[in-house]
Design goal:
363 residues; alpha+beta; 3-stranded mixed sheet; 19 strands; flat
Amino acid sequence: MEEHAEFTVEELVLNTSFRRWVKERDQTEEKFWLNWIGTDKHRKDKTEEASRLISILGEKDFMDLSDAELRQDIADVMLKVRILKKNQGRSDSSRGWLAAASLAGILMVFGIVLFWNNSKTITTVSESSEREVDAFIRFSNTTTRPLTFLLPDSSLITLEPSASAFFYNNTPNERKIELTGRASFDVRRDPQRPFVVLSNQVVTRVLGTVFKVNSTPQTGSVQVEVLSGKVSVFRESDWEDSKKELHKVTSGVVLTANQKVDFKVIDGTFRKTLIDLPAKIRKTGKDDFEFVMTPVDEIFFRIEEAYGVEIVFDRDLLAECKLSASLSEENMYEKINLICQGINATFQEVDTRIIINAQKGCE
């Protein structure tokens, strides 16, 4: 190698000599790479980015990975990057990961190219002669821990133990996947090609969002939980009928963040509720839930805004109610419970709404 040769970040990651120097601090390689970096700040930045990605990808030799292993490792990187990007802005330390995010995107494309170049021998399967060869890709988790995979459309699927999924390649107008078991999805938005999950007589349709599906046949039900965005859930029979008849009205359930639906296979009914522990869907400051003689309707409004959950109460009855409280550490239900104690009220969950039951106002 020539010390004056230029390398891109991805070329550094794939360079055997560079990886040996980064992972083993090989003295033979060190002289070359230190001389190559020299006082060039641009080269130093690229070296740091490449070293960070090699560290994230782990101890395996990148070029020796099978395509399946490569997809798994890249999926792990993408998952970490997405989590870090969601937390971006919370601290200065997140800025160092922005470079990793862009590099992960480059490696993701590179990984997909490698995958499709060799997919016929490694990850494509065929169930029967009636299916087109290479019509779908099978993902499965035979381990005892969750596994995250990168789908061909750049979405992520995390399969729980014993879960499996088939991603169909021959559906130009949608991204179709069949699921057995429990899985979480982080779907890349594509309005032209909705993402459709089929699971035990239930169809979940999204454009781009984060949600979970639990389709375990033994339970006789299917649960869909939405963490962000919006999804539509239908009976599979209704979904198929609507595709045959243009403009047919299809009965189903629309879910937004912090909502879930339980579909009972035996009678085909949906029950829509809030998820067990609603999470904040909007960033809040540390003082957003610190109240000093604050009107109760304003307190409820802040909770609604933070969690995306409708709270129903008699505004006239509680118009004079004010509270002082520190509710920054409590979850949503704990917040509401403490407020109700302060105004001599109770609450109950009806569908996806919180109903406040107050017998009298505040003096």
